[in-house]
Amino acid sequence: MKKEMIAKIAVETIRSIREIDFSQLDISRYDKDYINYLLPSIHYFFDIYADTVIRLHPAWDTFDYFIDFGGGQGFLSLFLKRLGFNVIYCELIPSSVNAITLIKNKIGFGPDFIIEGSSRELATFCKENNLYPKYLIATDVIEHVYDLNTLFSDFHSVNPDLSMVFTTASVKSNFLKSKKLRTVMIAEETNIYIPVRRQFIQKKYPHISAAKIEKLAKLSRGLIFPDIIKFVDTFLRTNTIPVIDIDKFNTCDPETGNWTERILSKKQYRKIINDARFQVKFENGYYNVYRKRLVLSVIAKTANFFIRHFRLSGSIMAPFIFLTVKNKQ
């Protein structure tokens, strides 16, 4: 399928989406708010979707299975289906699963399979149904996944030859972006996650002193509840607080494991992906040029020129990156 045809189908899919009155659908406030965030820049997001598809393979068979992993409200799934693929949508958030189900019914097309869950449920579903998808796309997902080693191990079990593209706006080399994200992490860690971990440890271990609970709550950053139990049990057994391999900013929700825009270096991503018997290629993303104000569009186009043509400035300026992951040859 040629690039021009993909662009044409993107426009057709956008037109179908814009015809939906989302306010009349019985979907959550969270999903409505996110859709309202997507719609003003929908052409930009579809450019990214199209680029992820093109990166996977220059000449796929339209009967191949595509996985839309962490599919959210399902716009990518709609696009993949209009392109002619068999589509497996997988999402952890129940309200978003409900949203794509209702959108599919309303619009008349959508993913062939809708899975509520994460990589483990996806792997189980594919095994039980003898499905071996060839391609997977995940946009703005990888920075939130609690355990990337498990994620890529599950993907390898889905299909060792699985080709994948991820996008993430948590770009370590973009210093301004990193600084902004880390400010958010500090706020969430201080105001939300430390109190949650403190309360959990107090309830689970009422015999531990308040001072030690406070210390354990602070130093268990980046752990979910089951791992916090292991963390505290190790401390009680050895009287030594375990060291967690994490930088001083990244933090996650101890209940769900959802990281707050976790920032990892390319070196860290490469090691995790190589350990799972895949290889990765990194490419810079670009800014949204579909702006109402001409001056903003010109600024975005200028930034994109530097990103495309100058390696160092491109790495520093890129608002997101593509990670193209394929089986080691």
Describe this structure as you would to a colleague.
The protein has helices at 3-18, 29-38, 42-56, 75-82, 94-107, 119-128, 148-158, 175-204, 210-219, 225-238, 266-275, 294-309, 311-317; strands spanning 65-69, 86-91, 113-116, 135-139, 163-168, 278-284, 321-327. The chain is an alpha/beta fold and 329 residues long. The chain folds into 2 domains: 3-172 and 264-327, 3-Layer(aba) Sandwich (Rossmann fold); 175-238, no CATH class. It has a 7-stranded mixed β-sheet, sandwiched between helices. Helix 7 (148-158) links the parallel strand 4 (135-139) and strand 5 (163-168).
Using the CA coordinates, give the radius of gyration: 21 Å
How does CATH name the architecture of the largest domain? Answer: 3-Layer(aba) Sandwich
Residue fraction in strands: 5-15%
Kindly state the percentage of residues in helix. Answer: 40-55%
